[in-house]
Amino acid sequence: MTTETKTNPEVDKAVDKIINNRMLLSVGAGLVPIPWVDVAAVTAVQIDMIKQIASEYEVDFNEHATKSWISAIGGSVLARLGASTMKAIPVFGSILGGLSMAALSGASTYAMGKVFKKHFSEGGDLNSIDFEKAKEFFKKKFEEGKEMAKEMVPKVEEEKAREEKSAEDKLKDMEKMREDGLLTQREFEAIRKRILKA
After folding, report:
1. Do 101 and 87 meet the contact criterion of CB atoms below 8 Å apart?
2. Does the structure show a pLDDT above 70 at 161?
3. Do 122 and 6 form a contact (C-beta atoms < 8 A)?
4. What contacts 74, CB < 8 A, 6 or more positions away?
5. How does pLDDT run across 112-127, given as a tens digit for each residue?
6. What whole-number distance in Å separates Cα of residue 72 and Cα of residue 49?
7. Can you give the pTM of this predicted structure?
């Protein structure tokens, strides 16, 4: 990483907000109960995060290079894959794998965001990353991120449960309207699909 610093408090604040938002999304993606889907979702979140960070620091973005750096720097991908595979074990695997994946995903996204924030703010771009320094910094921030992610998991689970309950309530209301003759079966099915997709 280079040493010429491009510090701008407003940009730094905006980037921290991007990192925290994407960390929250990664925790949510890590709770997806389908093996492998969660890994793809978290990677997509991280790519989008780095794209936004690059934009804030006015650095050219390249998706292919970003994917390569995510894979190279975040050696924890294998650990994430292990947690994802664990979800394939019925009942307990899904619960344990989901919680592990959620915490690892959030921590990994946080650390990755901090690596690119530091690098871009020091005048670097996607062609000038010092791999060893970036990996070392990632490990340090990953430990920080794990503690933060553990606190986020219950909140994200609560929010998901609220959304599911809300969808159930909406479906009950729609069923009542169908029974009362206010909705046809066809209308009910169309609304039901929309509610379940939301």
Report:
1. yes
2. no
3. yes
4. 108, 111, 112, 138
5. 999 999 999 999 999 9
6. 17
7. 0.65
